[in-house]
Each structure stands twice: as structure tokens, then as C-alpha cells.
Amino acid sequence: MSEPLAPWLAQQLSALLAQRGHAWLLHGPSGLGQYRLGLELTRAWLCETPTPQGACGQCASCHAIDVRTHADLFALMPETVMMALGWPLSEKAQADIDDKKRKPSREIRVDAMRDAVEFSQRTSARGRGKAVLVYPAERMNHVTANALLKTLEEPPGDMRFVLASEAAHQLLPTIHSRCLAHTMTWPREDAALSWLAQQGVGAADAAGLLRAAGGRPEDALQLLQGGLDLKNWSRLPAAMARGDASAMAGWTPVQGVDALQKLCHDLLARSVGAAPRYFNSADLPLAATAALARWSKELARTAQTVEHPFNAGLMLEALVSQARNALNSKP
Fold first, then answer.
1. Mean pLDDT in runs of 10 for the chain (331 residues)?
2. 104 upstream amide cis, omega within 30 of 0
3. Which of 221, 274, 290, 330 is the right S-S partner for 269, CB 3.0 to 4.6 Å?
4. Backbone phi, psi, residue 4, to 5°
């Protein structure tokens, strides 16, 4: 049985179930629960004894989803994400990876999309319709997305789609136009802190983690699980100004880019009179707005290729050098 939904997700689930539609786009920044909400939406659609609040959690359909074997639910995701979330790959994909013919894909492959389209044309195995869960939807390239369009617009039979995205601006306009959009709700701080406490996060750490995550509770939990040291986090701006790469010791390039984008965001926000989101204002050095804008563009370019197999140590050193140059520019 799945864990109870966070209160803000449960409220959104009830609202979505009260509406009619065959294709939903759940969108917002990371850490707000798009995947979990999308999964619970499909669970409720396929449940044998659903309620207005969602699935029963006890029937054979709910159990089949829990163990990732439901015949009427198709998970359309990058292979790396499927493996991380416990979804089985197709036999061919698994064989190719096991035989080391290729590495797991970080994009949603067009082969997987064709399998999803073929799945949509089958008869429902349990008689309660079928569902496709796409996550993260922005990992579809143009070829993959175009292969979905016709089925998304005119799904056969009792077929429904949930597209969950953390970067919906990257999706094709034709995908947007075929879906009912739902903007993810930001939880109140007290609700997020209460949820983190339920996940075993100590009160002394919860507020700091939530701030480092920009108010997004799932991201805050991931930061803790990733070993974030809050004292080190507060010292990061000064360390970057000194060019001290030891502040990122043990970090992956993905973690480094994410942290520096947050730092750059806060510095730019303060430069125009807005409140910082991820760091305390007292921890932020002064820097020239023009230099920060250039740094922001450099980080955005780096983020597009950061998952490629570069030398991690050299990449982090380059990131620290860029940060030092930007932070030592005169306002």
C-alpha cells in the first residue's frame, strides 16, 4: 500500500477527480509532487472501488499498481527514471542494457512512445479503462512528442493520459493544446514543515532544508537524503567568492550547478530589491548585476549538458572559477 498523500496533494487529487477530461498536464517546478499526484490520479481511475477522494488502496487494481504490474497502466518515462522509481523496462530494453549494448536512456525513447500508442489500442484487461503516465514529460524530444499527438487528441476507447512535468515550457505547444492544464499548488510553510517531520526530518533541520529547496518539500527531503550539510550551505556564497572548491567536495556536477543557480538567483533577486529564496540575505556577497546576468546564462548553458560523462572534478573546478569571477565583480 502506498504512503498517504501529503495534504496539499490530497486536496488537488480530489479537485482533479471531480473534473472530466482524458488528458491532464500537471506542471510546476520540481519538488511539488507532480509524479506522485499523477500516479494517484491514474490509481483512482483504475481502482475497483474508488471514492471522490481517490483510490481505495486495498483492491487488486491498487495492489497491481503498487507492485508495478498493472496491465492497464503504462509508465512512459526515461529508462533512468523508470529504474529509479521501480518500473520494469520492456524486455528488449532490459536485454540491451543487460548486454551493455547501450546505457539507460535519459530521454523518453521513441520506441517506448510507439509501445504506448500500441498499448492505447488494446482492450482494457480489467474493464476500467487504461491510463498512460508520462513523467517527466519534458524529456520527450520533438520526434517522440509528435508520435503521441494523434493518440493524445483522439484516444481510443476509455483511455486517459497524465503528463507530469517540471519544465512545461519545454513541451511543444501542440502538446499543451491537447491537455487540460493543472498548476501544482505550493504548500504553506507550516504544512511543508509538518510533512517533513512525518518523514523523520528533525525540527532543527527542516526549516533550513526547506529554505535551501526554495519552499519545495520533496526537494528538501532529497537534499537531506543527498547529505546536504546546512552549515556548509550557509557558507557556500563566501566560499565561492574565495574560489574555494572544497565547499563542493563530494558533490556531483548536477548538484553543483543546481546550488550555483540558486545562489545566482538570490543574488540577482536582491540586486533588484527582491527577497532571496534559498540563502539568508546576510550570507550573500555584493556583486555587479551585469556580471551576475552573464553568469546566469553560463550556468543555464552548462545545465543543458551537465549529465554528460565529463570529468566531474574538472567540471566542478570550472564552475567554482566562474562563480569567483562573478562574485568578485564590482557592483
1. 85 95 94 96 96 95 96 97 95 92 93 94 92 97 92 90 96 95 95 93 91 94 90 94 91 92 96 94 93 96 82 90 92 67
2. no
3. 274
4. -60, 145
Nearby residues of 234 by Cβ (< 8 Å), 6 or more positions away: 279, 280, 283
Please name the residues in contact with 52: beta carbons below 8 A apart, sequence gap of 6 or more. 14, 17, 18
User: Where do we find the cell 500508442?
Assistant: 117
Query: 74: which strand partners?
Result: 132
Half-sphere exposure for 164 (CA within 13 Å, toward CB)? 24
Q: What is the DSSP letter of 127?
A: S
Q: What pairing do the DSSP bridges indicate for beta strands 130-134 and 23-27?
A: unpaired
Q: Could you count the other beta carbons within 10 Å of the beta carbon of residue 228? A: 19
CATH superfamily of 7-183: P-loop containing nucleotide triphosphate hydrolases (3.40.50.300)
Distances (CA, A) of 298 to 304, 305, 326: 10, 12, 11
Q: Which of 253, 252, 217, 213 minimizes the C-alpha distance to 233?
A: 213
H helix intervals, the chain: 7-17, 34-46, 60-66, 79-85, 91-98, 110-120, 142-153, 173-177, 189-198, 203-212, 217-225, 230-242, 253-271, 289-305, 312-327
Q: At what angle do helices 189-198 and 203-212 cross, to 10 degrees?
A: 120
pTM recorded for the entire structure? 0.88
Q: Please give the backbone phi and psi of residue 163, each rounded to the nearest 5 degrees, phi first.
A: -105, 120
Task: Tell me the domain boundaries of the chain.
Answer: 7-183, 188-228, 229-331
Whether 163 contacts 25, CB under 8 Å: yes
Q: What is the SS3 assignment for 317?
A: helix
Side-chain-side CA neighbours of 15 within 13 Å: the count stands at 14
Q: For residue 180, give the 3-state DSSP assignment.
A: strand
Among 56, 57, 74, residue whose Cα is nearest residue 66: 57
C-alpha cell at 212: 535551501
